[in-house]
Amino acid sequence: MFAIVRTGGKQYRVAAGDKIVVEKIDGDAGSSVTLGDILLAGEGSELKSVEGLTVTAEVIAQAKADKVIVFKKRRRHNYRRKNGHRQQHTILKITAIGSEEKKKAAPKKAAAKSAEGDAPAAQA
């Protein structure tokens, strides 16, 4: 399954397991981020509804892009300015699209609840 998400004013086509570089998003390395602005989703050539759909990603690192030199000059006026800029960005790994992660997480919670339910019965 793939999705097209919008973040930082740009659009990205993502699938589970992809790594993308986006504009800086708050979060430390290893934390989970949810991208909610889904424009399109589908599987193969078949499109799906995007209502309530979310993309879950894991922050791999916070980094800086290569330096860009900004040079300004006005001829015959002895005016020259040189500046450098390094844009901050975030590297994300897409973990799940839509309800894929919810399906995996639900049995774990159910198993934990049933284990908690069995424990008091064993004590009594």
Automatic annotation (TrEMBL):
Q: Name one GO biological process term.
A: translation
Q: What is this protein called?
A: Large ribosomal subunit protein bL21
Similarity comment: Belongs to the bacterial ribosomal protein bL21 family.
Instruction: Indicate whether Transport appears among the record's keywords.
Output: no
Region Disordered: which residues?
96-124
Any one Gene Ontology cellular component term annotated for this protein? ribonucleoprotein complex
Q: What does the UniProt function comment say about this protein?
A: This protein binds to 23S rRNA in the presence of protein L20.
Q: Which InterPro entries does its entry note? A: bL21-like (IPR028909), bL21-like_sf (IPR036164), Ribosomal_bL21 (IPR001787)
